[in-house]
Amino acid sequence: MTTTRPTGTCPYPFSAPDALEVDPRYARQRADEPVSRVTLPHGGDAWLATRYDDVKTVLADPRFSRAAVVGADVPRVRPEIDNEASSILNMDPPEHSRLRRLVAKAFTARRVEELRPRAAELTRGMLASLRAAGPGADLVQHVSMPLPVTIICETLGVPVEDREIYRAGADAALSTSSMTPEDRAEARTRMLAYMAGLVAQRRETPTDDLLGAMVTARDEEDRLTEHELIGLAVGILIAGHETTMNQISNMTYLLLTRPDRGAALREDPDGIAAGVEELLRFTPLGASAGFPRIATEDVELSGVTVRKGDAVLVSVVAANRDPSVFDHPDELVLDRADNRHVGFGHGAHHCLGAQLARMELQEAIGGLLREFPDLRLAVPAQDVEWRTGAFVRGPKALPLAWGA
Questions:
Q1: 27 CB contacts (<8 Å, ≥6 apart)?
Q2: Cβ-count burial of 278 within 10 angstroms (0-12 exposed, 13-18 middle, 19+ buried)?
Q3: What pTM, to 2 d.p., does this model score?
Q4: pLDDT of 404
Q5: What is the set of domains in the chain, with CATH numbers?
């Protein structure tokens, strides 16, 4: 039975993120008003879906469009209006499917397993660097950032030594208020120009890396435009390291602030894969809901009619704590069976690099627990400094200690 549209709205995001704590209002909304009206800092009101089934519906149902947000004054957390029609993030099938097929082979489960020995080798070297730096060494600097950066750079064919350019591009892409709109635009322009230069190099000297294959698809097969080529390459480079970087640090923080959980995972090395899945479910990576979709016709969600033209946001954080799907959802159950979390999204925009991220997280977390049996934070948990003004959460630095 369809209810009347709620007349009140709630300011959103509910609050500034506090480390890895989940705002209790998500649970209240999920129980009492699972599809509610919220007001964002820019662009007005939207619907916010918090129940698992509704979140999956919005993410997978073609009646909710990403392409419709381009150029529209949709509800959002930063002032810029999204005008990137050539971005794969702003496409619906079949255009989205066309671009995704061009690069999907590089991220299949089989290809990722072929990369595992290289990831393990890199992890060993980075853990050795961490140990050599001594207690107080920063996990972000020595492991969390360089591991996914190196792997995605080697896969795509981007020089690791140019890290300063694309790290600035990543910070701009994920900034909400940590940078000004002008600084974000400048960093993005620099990032696009940098990638255009690499594309030009591939035309001079073809390569067999992923970027080389994308240039071939553009020049010889006419399967994407120049704007699509450069935007897709930038997106892969940023998405291929930024979230995994933060999750390595976030997961380490969670395990070290719950020593019994870290000890249980250390004692069961065969449980690393299941443990990482549970950490993916449990860790609130997003600082707020993002990527609004526009309803292209009237759709009913949990008894509420979302009208054609309405913007809808989904909270993956709330969905991953839905008690109708997960027993004891607010507990970290490392051997949880049938873990159907939506940490990598769902539907057409399910994370392209999900298998790669899983593998990197398994190698990094497993290696840390194996190589440092007495690992601990080098500072009180409350003194860890966290990123602010960004779409994702993660510590700016995570100083670690071990030994006596």
A1: 318, 321
A2: buried
A3: 0.95
A4: 72
A5: 10-401 (1.10.630.10)
